[in-house]
Amino acid sequence: QVQLVESGGDSVQAGGSQRLSCVASGYTFSNYCMAWFRQAPGKKRQGVASIDTAGRTNYGDSVKGRFNISRDNRKKTLYLQMNTLKPKDTAMYYCTRRNSSGCYSWSEFGVWGQGTRVTVSS
Predict the structure, then answer these.
(1) pLDDT in tens, 21-34
(2) Which stretch of DSSP H or E encloses residue 120?
(3) What's the rounded Cα separation, in Å, for the pair 107 and 45?
(4) Helix, coil or strand: residue 30
(5) Which residues contact 118 (CB under 8 A, 6 or more apart)?
(6) CA–CA distance, 82 with 49 (Å, rounded to integer)
(7) Measured between alpha carbons, how far is 96 from 33 in angstroms, rounded to an integer?
(8) Strands 57-59, 46-51: parallel, antiparallel or unpaired by DSSP?
(9) What does the DSSP assignment read for 48-61?
(10) How far apart are CA 15 and CA 109, in angstroms?
């Protein structure tokens, strides 16, 4: 079945870096827009970064210039490199697949992983 499995979340001090990974299975990874969302305690889930099948990327305003999303289609893996982490980046991070090849908006993401927790301390 279609599955997304995240890893790499950990506790880190402010200013540090971390890389999240998401391994996909059960479908043709290269055919779909992929993204990372996050949800902080008591807040709504928000889009962090997306990447379409052509490699075009989009970022949420709060992470532009600090985070980088990439994909390795041969390994069926999505990555999120997070630099200059801040306490406000603390959240559960989710890997997700959109129901299309293009990433036209932050909606219509229908497949989700279980999440990986990132905690940034000051």
Answers:
(1) 999 999 999 999 99
(2) strand 116-121
(3) 11
(4) helix
(5) 9, 10, 12, 18, 20, 38, 82, 85, 89, 90, 91, 92, 93
(6) 11
(7) 9
(8) antiparallel
(9) EEEE-TT--EEE-T
(10) 30
* Overall residue count recorded for the chain in this entry: 122
The answer to whether the CB of 118 falls within 8 A of the CB of 18 is yes
The predicted-structure confidence for 41-92, as pLDDT tens digits, reads as follows 999 999 999 999 999 999 999 999 999 999 999 999 999 999 999 999 999 9
Q: Is the dihedral of CA 13, 10, 74, 104 positive or negative?
A: negative
The letter for the amino acid at 93 is Y
Least Cα distance to 107 among 56, 35, 55 occurs for 35
What DSSP line would sit under 10-21, residue for residue? -EEETT--EEEE
Our measurement of the distance from residue 28's CA atom to the centroid of its chain's CA atoms, rounded to an integer in Å, reads: 18
